[in-house]
Amino acid sequence: MTDLRPELERILPPHRILDRPIDLAAYASDASFYRLVPRAVLRPESIAEVRAIFALSHRRRVPMTFRAAGTSLSGQAISDGLLVDVGHGWRAIDPLDGGKRVRVQPGAIGGKVNRTLAAFGTRIGPDPASIDACMMGGILSNNSSGMCCGVAQNSYHTLDSLVFVLPSGTVADTSRPDAAADFERDEPGIAAGLLALRDDVRRQPALVERIRRKYRIKNTIGYSLNAFLDYDTPLEMLRHLLIGSEGTLAFLAEGVLHTVPDLPVKYTGLLFFRHIEVAAEAVAPLTRAGAAAIELMDRAALRSVQAMPGVPPLLATLAPDAAGILVEFQSPAGTPLDSLRARADEVSATLELVAPPEFTSDPAQQARLWKVRKGMFPAVGAVRRRGTSVIFEDIAVPTDVLAPAALDLQALFRKHRYEDGIIFGHAKDGNLHFVISQSFNDDAAIRQYEAFNLDLVEMVVGKYDGSLKAEHGTGRNMAPFVEAEWGGAAFEIMVRVKSLVDPEGLLNPGVLVNHDPDAHIKDLKSLPEVEEEVDKCIECGFCESLCPSRDLTLTPRQRIVVRRAMERPGADLASLREAYQYDALDTCATDGLCALACPVSIDTGRLTKRLRASMASPAAKRLAATAATHFSATQRLVRTSLRASRLAAPLRRLVPSLGPGMPGPAGALPATQAADAAAILFPSCVSRTMGGDPGEPPEPSVPAAMIAVAARAGVRLHIPAGIEQRCCGMPFSSKGYREAQAIAANATIDTLWQATHEGTLPVVVDTSPCAYALTHADGLSEVNRDRTTRLHIVDAVEFFRTSVVPALTLRRRAGTVVLHPVCSLVKMGNAPHLSAVAASCSDRVFTPPSSGCCGFAGDRGFLVPELTEAATRIPAAEVRAITADGHYSSSRTCEIGMSRATGRHYRSWIQLLDWATGE
User: Fold this and answer.
1) Do 268 and 414 sit in the same domain of this protein?
2) Which of 516, 547, 554, 784 is 20–30 Å from 604 (CA)?
3) Domain range spanning residue 137?
4) pTM over 0.90
């Protein structure tokens, strides 16, 4: 416990002060290759609390750093003092003026802001690749841009107003009419100092010209000195100095941004050239043709993804010096595609290509082409040596020297032995990204990185007078080189800005302005080798926004960060292990959604299952295996317990205690005939055991409704004999009982193989999690692995959407229906099928913008109900805010979880379809 805790508890309630060893280890890392262990992690929820923390920081001389998503790549979001986490609140998003502006708080995820604005046909200007993970606090504080943003649409140029808190405690809302006068009254010293700095800058013609030239290309090194040229009043200058200040000057409590039109008509192509110089020459004509995105890729970058599924085969045949450009033309809704096609064809005809261009307007094909570009960073991350970090850097140079700069970068890779180095980037802006893998585990590795860095600075600054950081911010990484890039006069202005606004130097010290020439090679993060899943993690944080436990305990990144912390010398192992059980294992939903966002496809749930398995006793494993072997008896016992609202004691380790309010037991499965069956229906064990909710009108069971609805379309489904003895194995897998899971899965595949006449009929699974489990089963015998490749196992949602709904007669329509797409449905790519089925039966389909895993996770909702409560808090509020005729999902346990969270009755989607098509 930190010695500051008594004082902190006078500011925040105890549960918002995190100072256990596991908390401090979890927050010691951001997405960079630096590591600092904080003294405490604080979660304020109001400006008043932030002001009190500032006062404590000054009173006790303790540094403090604000952190939102922690996806920063240069070490901006870590601290060895107080780390103030604003990513667990501060999430408000408020479109203004019909979507022409948007008010955001620092904890709002950028992608969610855009999804909120989609109804207005607008989006925010910055479009970083991390937009579905990074938060608005970081987007503003780092002056983010992205692939199409360029300079004109970055945070600085689209800013309308800010609410900020200075280290002194002064609060300013720049949108207020009297804000400027109030600021000059409350902070006369800062106001006068800013005016003096403005005049000093403007008195130096050479400096004025340098500032103007530096911001014609992307540049996030140092403070935004263009504020002294673009604005005249102290408040306006400070408002824009705060953009890109990386949390070193103030806390940004709220921002209003002007939005830009969202251009949904897209025409995307992949172009190949014999050499990177030829590709660079194509940038100017593509820009003149109006291309919104021009993504340059060197041969090493293309080689890194050429074996990925869905990538054009041509990549593997390209010459050693070839290069590629992914180009996209965009226009507003309603624009004829022919106009984009004509522009693309005309400019392509002037280029020296080694193959015909491949252009498409099909969203699925466009996604395939963008997969080439977006797969490069994870490709390097996935194959790097264990124990090494991924360094993802970016520079910017004038576009007329883009090709020689790229060649010089390749030469630096060879000189410093970075064999896996790749180059890609936003060529229209002269912005080159590069990725290398680097160990920081010994002095030789650190010297290697230091030598490379010095040569990089000499190349970018000395040879091309470019930007050492185009997008990723100065951070700790480039802080020692700010003066080298800008020159002494500009750097002096920056030092004065910091001293003026944060005279005590306690706000995010060491970031952006740092007089230590070796700061960039201190506090480096070593990566101890642990488990296979852990070792692949690059700690980027992309997974966190999808995690059900993110507001309760740990995220996937933090589970891995803590596992690594356990292997570091001096770790408090006893405390870490004790807390890890609940924070990491008990509250992990094992839903696997983290793998969808992870650049290297890590499913942290698999790690959780492995660790749960290692902790299970031999007796528990034997009991699980017995339950799997005699599953029909297990199922009968569950039905009995549902009827009695309690379970037999011997099975409480496998099935949680079910209290009042639980559904009653399911009835018997309907009888079907094998003759003329079009498919085999596999009712999950949940459907076979759990009936309707108490107090709700009785209705057909899920299997009965599926059989009835399919029959109306002339499709016969058959439930084979003996199916009640079978289970997909997921209830055992989630607890880490691998042997029991393998027993259950193999027995089920045996039965389905016989029932389908060796794969000649499809298998329709009535519950999405079970469909996913059967198609991704572990522990199958060699024979059954082969059988699964020949069995067509399909989620019922997909089967009914494609094979049943088109032949149905819809007799009724609901008004508004609410959907909860369960995590397994999303992972299978079937969420659009669920929406389409619901749309055929209703006038409006509403899926909550914050919808994700409900955290019920099979039995977690019974064992750890606080997980579901935390996971559903925001989407449940979105559901309660609208009036709907029905609420539907595709998993019985998730329906229970969502019903509890929202107070609305969730049912299976098939019951909506049954109602809409019945007599």
Assistant:
1) yes
2) 784
3) 1-261+473-508
4) yes
